[in-house]
Amino acid sequence: MSSSVRLLPRPCSPARLRVMSKPHDDTLIAMPFGALHQWHGGMREAFAHIDEPDALQYLASALGQLVSIESMMISLERKDRAPQLLHQRGIAEEYQVSILDRYFSGGYLLDPFCLAVEQGLAEGFYHLEEIAPDNFFDSDYYKTYYLKANCSEDSYYIVDTGNDTKISVSLFQGFGGECLRVDQLNLLRAVEPLVREFVSEFSRRGLLRGSEIQGGDAQGLRDDLKHRVQSAFEHFGSDLLTEREREVAHMILRGHSVKSTASQMNISPETVRMHRKNLYLKLEVGSQSELFALFIEWLRGH
Q1: How many domains does the chain have?
Q2: Does residue 90 fall inside a structural domain?
Q3: Which of 22, 71, 91, 168 has the smallest CB count inside 10 Å?
Q4: How many CB atoms lie within 10 A of CB 53?
């Protein structure tokens, strides 16, 4: 890893969670009386406004009373379609373009959470570290679409609303905020059933319809972009690389290590290293950074 990478500030390194075990029924969760009271009051307000189009802002406010969350984003996730923003809170103006572009433009197709949803991620609460590939936090995707967007930590609620449709609630921590402690993550996980019930009820009342219609034209453009990006993955380096080499390139871009790539592709680590060496030579790149830059350039040209 180059020295320039070491200079990137990472006060909320998710690597600390690799030793964190899931909470069990006897896990103690302590919080101030005032915060608990405000959380319940906030959720009462949210359910009182559930028939209104802006009901999601009350859910966001309630979660902010429970735990100090720097920013959040609530999105509609539909199978084989680009995600659609329903509500965002607290994303600084200077980072809105980079964060929203990361998820709602071509970049979301390499996002580990989006990939997990496409692959059938179950309802629940997740931290990014729980679902990201083993080498993701050293990947150029993480450096480009997370760190440069002032986001270093990510947590999610995912709610299945039926018909291949889900709603995600993404909670972001950046360099301006503290890392979420393990006990705070356990608290967010503990209230997941109530969050799920609110989001499910919001969806059942048909209040997504207006959002879907409103974004119709933009959605068509995003769908077209998704097909172009998927096509780019299928054809990226196809005139130079073998099918196996392209698969290895895809795994590298997603943030998998040699060991993880070998396991996923059912080949040996030595074979992965050989494919990586060959594809680097054929594409005339010397590092993951150069491979990532080449792929982004490919996307823009196709």
Answers
A1: 2
A2: yes
A3: 22
A4: 13
